[in-house]
Design brief:
Order of helices and strands: HEEHHHEEEHEHEEEEEHEEEHEEHEHHEH
Shape: elongated
Bound molecules: zinc ion
Radius of gyration: 24 Å
Distance between the termini: 33 Å
Helix content: 25-40%
CATH superfamily of the largest domain: Zn peptidases
CATH class of the largest domain: Alpha Beta
Strand content: 15-25%
CATH architecture of the largest domain: 3-Layer(aba) Sandwich
Largest sheet: 8 strands, mixed
Number of domains: 2
CATH topology of the largest domain: Aminopeptidase
Strand order of the largest sheet: 3-4-6-5-7-18-8-17
Structural class: alpha+beta
Number of strands: 18
Number of helices: 12
Length: 422
């Protein structure tokens, strides 16, 4: 601790744009940057995946308890902490994910992961930012006009954690009125630390997986006439699925249909009994999403019938798009620009004339289906020897200097939104 809380608060009080005395949470968070870095590095070193976050959750819980919280594990590795609730008002949720990827780290950092997993998506930074937000909110708890729920989520990479926490009741008692998340990003051609707003509407892709099982009748490769060939049928289905995008979707719309796996047979002179294809659909519009899902099934089955095979299609791993709420986007943009300064925020939608989208999926989408939500991006690239690696790469580096701003944006958005909506 560099200074006692009283000194930090006194020295960082500013007059806000609305004329009220406003605490500059960013200045406060900068005051405990060493702790933010320490939290981040511990989590980085102990990277865990999916819902198996024993070390991570024990650490997060103990940090929260030391700040005066009573964190609860509401589902496996999913932690809820609550701030405020002393004054009546609405409920704002902030979310940080905590899971890593099954990737062997190659960064050479002295706090590299020792678990065989790696925080290659930057969720270690999100967890540290959320702990920083927890600390800021505790310091300012008496000023919270309502309740803030802090959602420490497992299993984002497997698109399972948000759903689990919703099923465990995170959006109820009290009912959540708005939710936001931050994701750090490596590789954006934008100065590190810039907070990027993608605009209102769908900003991440909806994702669906399909498995197409084809059943024919195997036999000798020299006598195909005595067989029903599932490999041939698989090839026709693969080609035909490509036509959905090129012939049936509006050229101005964006959609992806990818077959990433195709398998059938064991050797060159045997026609097998079965074959399968596996792939993914990425869309940004619900009608297009439903249309493609329907057409994948119809086309696959139709070709099966044509070539006398039985075809079954299984759709799974569904995740909708994150949809940014307009009012929430505009409000948080304003609070963030006021706190960090206009140079630190970028309205991509205004800069490019359209809502920006990313073709990746993000399971915060399950919250955005239910409550007004906002996903913001924080540029956090680190260039080393002239190279910048992307998310999920075993050599990707994220900028720790973004931690104070991230913590402050989380806490400030919650405080300001609740104040504005009391
Ligand atoms: Zn990721
Ligand atoms: Zn991620």
């Amino acid at each position: 601790m560099r200074t006692d809380k009283g000194e930090v608060r006194a020295s960082t009080t500013l007059y806000g744009i609305r004329g009220t005395i406003m605490k500059n949470l960013f200045e406060e968070a900068k005051g405990f940057k060493p702790e933010l870095v320490e939290w981040r590095r511990y989590i980085h070193k102990n990277a865990e995946t999916h819902t198996n976050l024993e070390t991570t959750t024990a650490y997060v819980s103990s940090c929260l308890k030391a700040m005066g919280y009573e964190p609860i594990e509401i589902c496996k590795s999913g932690i809820l902490a609550v701030a405020g609730g002393k004054k009546p008002g609405k409920t704002f949720l902030i979310r940080g994910d905590m899971d890593a990827l099954p990737v062997e780290e190659q960064t050479g950092l002295d706090f590299s992961s020792g678990t065989g997993n790696m925080h290659a998506c930057g969720h270690d930074l999100h967890t540290a930012m959320m702990l920083g937000a927890a600390r800021l909110l505790k310091t300012h708890e008496d000023e919270i006009e309502g309740t803030v729920k802090l959602m420490f989520q497992p299993a984002e990479e497997t698109l399972a954690g948000a759903k689990m926490m919703i099923e465990a009741g995170i959006l109820e008692k009290p009912t959540v009125d708005a939710a936001m998340m931050i994701h750090v990003f490596s590789g954006l051609p934008i100065a590190s630390g810039t907070v990027v707003f993608y605009g209102a509407g769908a900003v991440s892709a909806a994702s669906d997986w399909f498995l197409i099982n084809i059943k024919g009748k195997g036999g000798h490769g020299a006598m195909p006439n005595t067989t029903i060939d599932p490999v041939n049928t698989a090839a026709h289905i693969h080609i035909a699925l490509g036509e959905i995008n090129s012939r049936e979707i509006d050229p101005a719309a964006t959609a992806v249909v990818t077959v990433g796996e195709i398998h059938g047979g064991t050797t060159g002179n045997i026609i097998p009994d079965t074959a399968f294809l596996r792939g993914t659909i990425r869309t940004f519009d619900n009608d297009i999403r439903e249309f493609i899902k329907k057409r994948v099934v119809e086309i696959s089955k139709g070709i099966g019938t044509t070539f006398r095979c039985e075809v079954e299609v299984e759709l799974s791993n569904a995740c909708p798009s994150v949809v940014n709420d307009r009012e929430l986007t505009e409000s948080v943009y304003k609070y963030t620009a006021e706190m960090l300064g206009p140079q630190a925020v970028l309205d991509m939608a205004a800069a490019t004339g359209k809502t920006q989208v990313m073709s990746g999926s993000e399971d915060f989408a399950f919250l955005s289906e239910r409550v007004p939500s906002l996903m913001i991006i924080m540029a956090a690239s680190v260039e080393k020897n002239g190279e910048v690696f992307p998310q999920h790469h075993p050599r990707v580096l994220f900028d720790e200097n973004t931690l104070p701003a991230g913590a402050a944006v989380y806490a400030n958005s919650a405080l300001e939104w609740l104040k504005m909506h009391k």
